[in-house]
Amino acid sequence: MSQKIRGVKGTRDVLPIDTYVKDEDPWVRVGHYHLVEQSARDLFPLYGYREARTPVLERTELFVRGIGEVTDIVGKEMYTFDDRGESVTLRPENTASLVRAYVEHNVNQQEPETKWWYAGPMFRRERQQRGRYRQFTQIGIEAFGSPGPRIDAEQVELLDRWLRVLGVPFEMHLNTLGDASCRPKYREALQAYLRSRAPELCEDCQKRIETNPIRVLDCKNPKCQEVAAAAPKMEQFLCEPCKVHFAGVQEMLQRLGVPFVVDPKLVRGLDYYTRTTYEAIATSGLGAQSTLAGGGRYDGLVKDLGGPDVPGIGFAAGVERLALLLAQEGKERATRPVVFIAPLGDAEAARADQLAQQLRAAGLAAEVSFRKSNPGNQLKRADTLGARFALVLGDQELKSDRAKLKELKTGAQHEVTLSGFADEVRKLTGGPR
Ligand code: AMP
User: Fold this and answer.
1) Which string of b and e fits 136-163 if b means at least 16 CB within 10 Å?
2) Around 360, how many Cα atoms within 13 Å sit in the side-chain half-sphere?
3) Average pLDDT by consecutive 10-residue portion of the chain (433 residues)?
4) Which of the listed residues 320, 325, 326 should we mutate to test ligand 1's pocket, taking the one with most ligand atoms within 8 A of CB?
5) Do you find a cis peptide bond into 149, omega within 30 degrees of 0?
6) Is pTM beyond 0.85 here?
7) Pairing state of beta strands 57-59 and 135-144?
8) How far is the CA of 93 from the centre of ligand 1 (A)?
9) DSSP-assigned states of every residue in 25-66
10) Do 233 and 177 form a contact (C-beta atoms < 8 A)?
11) Residue 117 and residue 140: Cα distance in Å, rounded?
């Protein structure tokens, strides 16, 4: 036998079935993904967001300039390769790509405010663990052209509503990172403080003091957290406009009835954030990788990437983590057959195919058995598929035009005719025409 070829480390197959059951890590099926994706597709347009699709492959320079050279993502996690003399990268996130598209197509000349949402795979060469993969899916939104703070609050409210629709347990965290006029002073003060306590920090954070000191604040290492707890706070350094902006966001969230906590440790990993940052963190069910979605304002990014001076704000949510929570709660979106038809012989099979065709044309999901097997096994198969009704079709049924439709959950039998089958099933289910 030839050797099996396994998937690449850190990637996952999402299938419509379970292939194993493990209590602490339920198998995530495609139906869990569908629930996450469909709820976004239904909800985001209600807030004016329209879908944008950009390529998975971008020029490496986009992320180096957009995300920042000293970030973990650009420093060590990108899938970058040479494409005949040009360096290209599998996107590690989508904000930079959407900004590129926004700038490339001069979108600001057509509309003063733009709201886009997206969904798709992202790639980061991270250490794999539960809820952290090398290919993962993000759904996110970006709004260009609104300096805030109303749009900031609207986005946080959208994220809050979405997670409530999905029914996952979470807490909304909110912070501000200041802007180009006040953050440098804070950065300096933080650096001075961290240098004085450098020996207590982990190796990575010792390097971060010089490259990206703000990231020390969200290091998971307990020693670093101890040092971070006594560090100077951004709040003390905020300039007046940043203070007013942050107060505005909080006031509006209160007005909209969105619960949140102010979290000075919420600094986000990427360079481009200014002012408002927010994260929805799962309060149970995920362990270490508990951030469901993260976002913030990036007022200088469009300009940095060669565009006009247009402000932006957005969030990205991790579909795998949301799907894991839904899997644990047994919630998914799956189409199950309304009727499973099991023909006993060849003539019945031909009729079964026609009946299935009629059901599908009426918008009802139908499955026919292609295997020869006894009625007992056929009913078992119907049950496994989650069918609502099963129809066993034999010679007798064909001749008399009458059959018994078995409702699998209750065992109830419904008398139906084959000639009026689709209509009668529709009446029984109240389903679509
Ligand atoms: P980020 O772009 O790092 O702010 O991530 C936004 C969200 O995407 C996170 O809150 C996670 O839910 C998800 N996410 C980020 N990286 C990964 C990963 N490697 N695997 C799975 N989900 C991820």
Assistant:
1) bbbbbbbbbbbbbbebbbbbbbbbbbbb
2) 13
3) 91 85 74 97 98 98 90 91 97 97 98 98 93 96 96 98 98 95 92 94 92 87 92 93 98 98 85 91 91 96 96 98 94 94 95 97 96 90 94 96 96 96 94 61
4) 320
5) yes
6) yes
7) unpaired
8) 9
9) SPPPPHHHHHHHHHHHHHHGGGGT-EE----SEEEHHHHHHH
10) no
11) 6
Distances in Å between the Cα of 281 and the Cα atoms of 64, 70, 174, 288, 417 are 28, 25, 11, 11, 54
Binding-site residues, ligand 1, Cβ < 6 A: 93, 124, 126, 131-133, 136, 138, 269, 291-294, 316-318, 320-321
Ordered DSSP codes for 113-133: -EEEEEEEEEE--PPPBTTB-
**Which of 433, 428, 430, 362 lies closest to 391 in space, CA to CA?**
428
For residues 169 and 72, is the Cβ–Cβ distance under 8 A?
A: no
Furthest-apart CA pair in the chain: how many Å? 92
**Atom of ligand 1 at shortest range from CA of 316:** 6
Separation of 317 CA from ligand 1 center, angstroms? 7
Task: State the residue for tokens 């379970």.
Answer: 18
Instruction: Give the residue whose CA is nearest to atom 12 of ligand 1.
Output: 318
- Report the half-sphere exposure of 413 (CA within 13 A, side-chain side): 6
What tokens does 17 get? 């079935």
Number of residues in the chain: 433
CA-nearest residue for atom 16, ligand 1, is 132
* Cα–Cα distance, 432 to 415 (Å, whole number): 21
* Pairing mode, strands 366-368 and 339-343: parallel
Q: What pLDDT does residue 68 have?
A: 85
Q: How many CB atoms lie within 10 A of CB 222?
A: 8
Q: Please give the Cα distance from 65 to 301 (Å, whole number).
A: 9
